[in-house]
Design a protein that fits this description.
single chain; alpha/beta; Nucleotidyltransferase, domain 5; five-stranded mixed sheet; 35% helix; globular
């Protein structure tokens, strides 16, 4: 059972301007895409459950997702495939996923609030990197919920194609069971081949 969340999120980083919160999901996975979301919230946005998606149960995230989508000024999701991750590396892929989400917003933000400590400049918009920002600012927390739920949904669809890997449960993360299945069955087209899929980087049959 998740612990009760008592920390209050800050609605805005600064008093003026249009702020978009950005976060990604799936950076540490062995399979599947990295997914990012960008969210612009109204100044009166509130939901008592909203927080860092990692601190929420799946049921809580599923409650929040439609609420965020229907009460946001604008929101969007960006996806970077496992093939692109292998080509440009996961850090750049995370930035690209955020950029793709920002490209789809129907309002232009004047300030970007990024979860983490690094970001690649987007157009000429000012940005602020905030460590553990998904537990501090509502817009980043909202983006974390959308990114997580959309990626989890994506991995459940892939699970139907490769059920033996348990992606409906592990969502592509490097659990022991996931690595054991890779060891016995090999990699799929959805695995990130530049990642160490197995301990000691054992050779795989494709």
């Amino acid at each position: 059972m998740k612990k009760e969340i008592k920390a209050k999120l800050q609605l805005r980083f600064a008093s003026k301007g249009v702020e978009a919160g950005c976060d990604e999901a799936g950076r540490g996975c062995l399979a599947g895409p990295v997914v990012a979301a960008a969210v612009v919230l109204p100044d009166d946005f509130f939901h008592p459950m909203l927080h860092d998606s990692k601190q929420l149960s799946e049921a809580q995230r599923e409650i929040l997702r439609p609420y965020i989508e229907s009460h946001s000024v604008s929101w969007a999701v960006g996806v970077v495939s496992e093939a692109e991750i292998d080509e440009i590396n996961i850090l750049n892929a995370s930035f690209l996923a955020m950029h793709r989400a920002l490209d789809q917003l129907n309002v232009r933000p004047t300030r970007l609030l990024i979860d983490g400590n690094r970001f690649k400049k987007y157009q000429e918009i000012e940005h602020h990197c905030i460590i553990k920002g998904d537990g501090k600012l509502s817009a980043i927390a909202a983006a974390s919920v959308l990114a997580k739920t959309y990626r989890d949904e994506w991995m459940c669809r892939l699970h139907a194609e490769f059920p033996q890997y348990g992606w409906n449960q592990n969502k592509g993360y490097p659990t022991r069971a996931h690595r054991e299945i890779i060891g016995s069955h090999g990699a799929t087209p959805y695995h990130r081949m530049t990642f160490a899929l197995l301990p000691k980087q054992l050779e795989l049959d494709f």
